[in-house]
Design goal:
The protein has 15 helices and 16 strands. The protein folds into 2 domains: about 160 residues, Orthogonal Bundle (Recoverin, domain 1); about 240 residues, Alpha-Beta Complex (Phosphoenolpyruvate Carboxykinase, domain 3), CATH 3.90.228.10. The protein starts with about 35 loop residues before the first helix and ends with a strand. Helix 6 packs across helix 7 and helix 8 crosses helix 11. The longest helix is centred in the middle third of the chain and has 18 residues. Helix 14 links the parallel strand 13 and strand 14. By secondary structure, it is an alpha+beta fold. Strands 7, 8, 9, 11, 12 and 16 form a 6-stranded antiparallel beta sheet that branches. It has a 4-stranded mixed beta sheet with strand order 10-15-14-13. A two-stranded parallel ribbon has the order 1-2. It is about 30% helix and about 15% strand. Bound molecules: zinc ion (3 copies). The site of one zinc ion has 7 residues, from loops.
């Protein structure tokens, strides 16, 4: 091929995927010990910003305040039998809540009992009590861990747990980060299932998890769907598949990437058909426009691009996080009632022609977007994901400290670096979800970031094509929303 260096990322050792057995269940109802009683009785009002996150102002009090009002509000009493409850009367369910119910976390806090959290989703809901999709309160993490393993953790221990979970370094722990962490952590999480079965995977059956029950598929026995015909509660039914089965890789990935329980991390050479389609895409999304990011005025803008080689990044771990995030956003944008503004699909420059055999999901504004890079940086991104802590260090942060993408190849090409005669662009899957649009020349970046991290929006679209006649910029603040799928090596034609 025309480029002198053709790189392959080194595959890391595959971490074992947790075996699927029912999690052990604690029966005893306990009162909170002195070590955690302060946290439980008086939710923290000031929340320190997580460490290692210098850029965003992340300190929030919203979680704690919402917790206080939740505790004051109505929730059912927790059933003392928890996951082992066998009561089959609807009246019992009207009076008592059980693990997996939406009022269960608040009820556990209010009645100061030892809670049971049997899926990753149930764990996360406990630490994200108002459903923001992120954990921003380390104390809540400490509370969860105490419920799970009875250990009280000091602040420095929580700090180190936190930095393990916050893989992309944006200062928050997202659900996909939490799942990836817990799945590898084992211990109290050993054998725990995802608990997001309706959103994920090929839509398989939900098996009953009650000890000894042979039910293989949930069949509602009452109008409200609270019980299965097997006699056990709905929340005990979960998909039997392991995490990698619930977050399948795209069909067109290599067979190696489809082996369950085995993680891959490699670059796979694509065929000449895809190279040609990529060349059509890169040129269809080019635009003759100069900005300062290209160089001093007068710096020539390439007239077209010639694609030399295309490689596909197959990285199971990063894909799982991306898949989970995309599933969550898709559910959230389809959820009309909870939002003030209806979801709008946005077409971008790569929507047409796109890549015919590698479709994107327009229902959640999944796009293919360009990211200019060096070959070295591309290698790092593909094996370790984007790191928010590095965002904007070279390119400014007009729309906040996130990760920036372009729908125009010419814009991304401004940041591409030459190695061995070729430039490198990454073509990334990005989930835009609910898009916060701005055509302001100098936007208030703190406000934009806040509306994405704490509001209903999932991404920012800075329309400088409209306000400056240059390019659109797309920004996400959580790297789970990005999957760097194709490494494109190309030459510039002037
Ligand atoms: Zn019960
Ligand atoms: Zn059953
Ligand atoms: Zn059943």
């Amino acid at each position: 091929m025309g480029c002198s260096s053709s790189a392959a990322a080194t595959p890391p050792a595959a971490p074992p995927v947790a075996a699927l057995v029912s999690a052990p269940v604690a029966l005893t109802v306990l009162t909170l010990g002195p070590a955690t009683s302060a946290t439980a009785a008086t939710p923290s009002v000031t929340v320190a910003p997580p460490s290692g996150s210098p850029r965003l102002s992340r300190a929030t009090t919203t979680t704690s305040l919402a917790l206080q009002s939740q505790q004051a509000g109505h929730c059912r009493r927790p059933c003392k039998f928890g996951l082992k409850c066998y009561r089959k009367k609807l009246d019992h369910l009207k009076d008592f809540c059980h693990p997996g119910d939406s009022d269960y976390p608040a009820s556990v806090r209010k009645h100061k009992i030892k809670g049971e959290f049997h899926t990753f989703k149930a764990c996360f809901d406990f630490v994200d009590p108002i459903g923001k999709g992120i954990i921003d309160d380390k104390k809540l993490l400490g509370e969860l861990m105490w419920h799970l393993d009875d250990q009280h953790r000091e602040e420095d221990q929580l700090d180190s747990l936190w930095s393990e979970i916050d893989d992309d370094g944006n200062g928050f722990a997202s659900f996909p980060e939490f799942v990836e962490w817990a799945n590898n952590k084992g211990g109290v999480f050993e054998g725990m299932k995802l608990g997001l079965d309706e959103e994920c995977g090929p839509g398989g059956k939900q098996e009953c998890g009650f000890m000894g029950c042979r039910c293989k598929s949930f069949r509602p026995a009452d109008d409200e769907g609270m019980f299965c015909s097997c006699g056990h509660k709905k929340f005990l039914h979960t998909a039997p598949d392991s995490l990698d089965m619930l977050t399948p890789v795209p069909d067109y990935w290599s067979d190696n990437a489809k082996v369950s329980g085995q993680d891959v991390n490699e670059w796979v050479d694509c065929d000449d058909d895809l190279r040609q389609q990529m060349e059509a895409l890169i040129n269809a999304s080019a635009k003759q426009s100069w900005t300062r990011d290209r160089g001093p005025p007068g710096t020539a803008v390439p007239a077209s691009f010639e694609v030399v080689q295309v490689q596909r990044n197959e990285n199971s771990k990063v894909w799982r996080k991306y898949y989970l995030k995309r599933s969550l956003i898709k559910k959230h944008v389809g959820d009309e009632a909870s939002d003030t503004e209806s979801f709008e699909q946005k077409a971008v420059k790569t929507t047409s022609p796109g890549l015919p055999d590698q479709p994107v999901d327009g229902d959640c504004n999944e796009w293919f977007l360009w990211h200019g890079s060096s070959l070295e940086a591309a290698k790092s991104i593909c094996s370790n994901d984007f790191k928010v802590s590095l965002a904007g260090t070279t390119t400014g942060t007009l729309y906040g400290a996130g990760t920036y993408f372009a729908d125009s190849s010419t814009k991304a090409d401004e940041y591409a670096k030459e190695t061995g005669g070729c430039f490198t662009l990454l073509l990334c899957r990005v989930v835009g979800g609910r898009v916060l649009y701005t055509d302001e020349v100098t936007p208030n970046s703190d406000q934009l970031v806040g509306k994405c991290l704490h509001g209903v929006y999932d991404s920012v679209l800075g329309d400088r094509e409209k306000c400056r006649n240059t390019f659109k910029e797309f920004v996400v603040f959580s790297t789970d929303q990005v999957y760097a799928e194709f490494i494109v090596s190309y030459k510039r034609n002037y």
